[in-house]
Predict the structure.
Amino acid sequence: MRIPYDVEKRDEPRLGLIVLQSDETIENDLRRLLPSEATLHTSRVPSGEEVTATTLSEMENHIGASAGLLPRPARFDAVGYGCTSGTSVIGVKKIAELVHGGADTRAVTEPVSALIAACRHLGVNRLAFLSPYVAEVSSRMRDVLAENGIETPVFGSFETAEEAVVARITMSSAAKAASELAVDPAVEAVFISCTNLRTLDVIPEIEQKTGKPVLSSNQVLAWHMCRLCGLDAAANGVGQLFSA
């Protein structure tokens, strides 16, 4: 017996996320940061076990296909590519082109564009920059920020290339390092880079200790995705960025 059914029009905000194969952190963070009324779909992109300029650039060959694995019937309000260092190597424009080629979405963002937008929103242009990356990766990221008018006069790194290690760096280590970097009067805010680094729960602690805004890759990405599609992320957000 064929049973009849009804079909409803789904009009809730739809967000997409392209996650690195090696990332163990970003999905949980974004589900905490995004408003409950938004639907989040994720896809994975092949990525190396180590973060180097070479492994990051190789992702360019797979981003379009990964975007194409997001649900086809859905038109997305925004799709985020979840890699800060990969964006700095591949380029903002190229990533947008690849994601648009694979998914039907009104907007594309990534942590670099999101960070730049967050800095402009807060009116800051001098950051203390905390990175987990090796020197060549960190240097490229800082160059991209400088090209967009954001200085990083204070810098520190855990200097590891292993993604599995990055995902297991303690939050207390990140909080201690970020707080020490933020003490320098030359900086107006702190940026903790990498979507795989666990920082979300220590952002309020660092802000309280330093009196300065603290930004992280996952925090700014969630904030920017919401702003691009007119959603209010403040209810579930952390840090001064969400209340500014």
Remarks:
- The mean pLDDT is 95.
- The chain has twelve helices and eight strands.
- The longest strand covers residues 14-20.
